[in-house]
Amino acid sequence: MKLESIEVGNFRNYENAKLEFHPKTNILYGDNAQGKTNILESIYVCATTNSHKGSKDKELIRFGEDEAHIRMFLTKREMTHKIDIDGVPIKRSSELMGLAHVIFFSPEDLKIIKNGPSERRRFVNMELCQLDPLYLYDLAEYNKVLMQRNKLLKQISFSPSLESTLSIWDEKLIEYGEKIIVRRQQFVDELDKIVLQVAKNLTGEKEIIKTLYEPDVSAGNFEKALAESKERDMKFCSTNVGPHRDDLCFMNGELDLRKFGSQGQQRTCALALKLAEIEIVKKSSQDCPANDKKVSLNASIRFPCVLVITDKNGISSFCRSSSFPIYSYACIK
After folding, report:
1. Which residues of 110-126 are buried (b: 16+ CB within 10 A; e: fewer)?
2. CA 274, CA 257: separation in Å to the nearest integer?
3. Does the model's pTM come out above 0.85?
4. pLDDT (tens place) for every residue of the chain, 333 residues total
């Protein structure tokens, strides 16, 4: 895959901007608060329809404007693709998922380790949705059913006769939920092996990091757990069991890095996760990913890459200390 160019209009702090990219390593440099990360974010939005920060769509629009435009051109398997959020009629945002595999490493990724389970579920979902169209479909359907079931639970509190219809949504929830749990377990098992090795390489084998899947309920026990939770669900008007309550655990020996890891250990774990993502994408896709990273890294990775840096003088230092050959760089100001 080759990222050709990105065009933005009224996006974040940009009125209009266009950047063309080299198929290998590109560096954007400039002072803080000039919009370097916003360029990376625009690529991520085009590839996934979401901001890496979890921002709402209206927050992506330039102050004082009513709409924003992003246009990305890429070549994949010698075919040119154009993703135009405004100009091309796209029936479903899910059609964009998987067209360009993007791995974005930024300070916000520490939230995966430090924050609550929702951040870790989002990490798993974003990666699997890019890699596996069936998972994307199952997750979308599960969320629809979950929303309808919760809506029905609220209605039951006012109209108890509707309780007999709850089983219809239960069947669908179990159908899609079991598939999600199984696929997540497969993904985390693969992730764990790679993270373990990457963390060893990064720390000289001082950090032995295990990645564990903590499902709220097992696939084989979902139906039973949902039935046992029925009274509680009706009491709280919410579904209290299922993969929407899953979590990941990162262990260094007996130390839970989510709660007790040092800042350095958490950073190592977050970086290992991102580097593991790259390996998984390489194995699962015919294309290498467009890896967007916003940190000072020393790694030998060969694929289309966009990095940002605040000091132009740091470019030569980066070249000396890493195995990245720099093919293009641009000043953002």
Report:
1. bbbbbeebebbbebbbb
2. 16
3. no
4. 788 899 999 999 999 999 999 888 888 888 888 899 999 999 989 888 888 887 788 899 999 999 999 988 878 766 555 555 445 556 666 666 767 788 888 888 899 999 999 999 999 999 999 899 999 999 999 999 999 999 999 999 999 999 999 999 999 999 999 999 999 999 999 999 999 999 999 999 999 999 999 999 999 999 999 999 999 999 999 999 999 999 999 999 999 999 999 999 999 999 999 999 989 988 876 555 444 443 333 333 445 788 887 777 766 665 555 555 555 556 666
Q: 58 with 66: CB under 8 angstroms?
A: no
CA atoms of 160 and 213, how far apart (whole Å): 37
Long-range contacts of 150-153 (CB under 8 A, 24+ apart): 150/237, 150/238, 150/239, 153/233, 153/234, 153/237, 153/238, 153/239
* DSSP per residue, 253-269: TTEEHHHH--HHHHHHH
49: left (phi over 0), alpha (psi -120 to 50) or beta: left
- In our burial notation (b when 16+ CB lie closer than 10 A, e otherwise), range 21-46 reads bbbebbbbbbeeebbbbbbbbbbbbb
Length of the chain (residues): 333
Q: Please say whether the dihedral angle defined by the alpha carbons of residues 249, 290, 134 and 50, taken in this order, is positive or negative.
A: positive
Look up residue 322 and give its two tokens.
């890493």
Cα-flanking dihedrals φ and ψ of residue 290, to 5°?
A: -85, 105
Distances (CA, A) of 46 to 20, 38, 40: 15, 12, 10
What is the SS3 assignment for 111?
helix
Do the beta carbons of residue 318 and residue 304 sit within 8 Å?
no
Report the SS3 class of residue 29.
strand
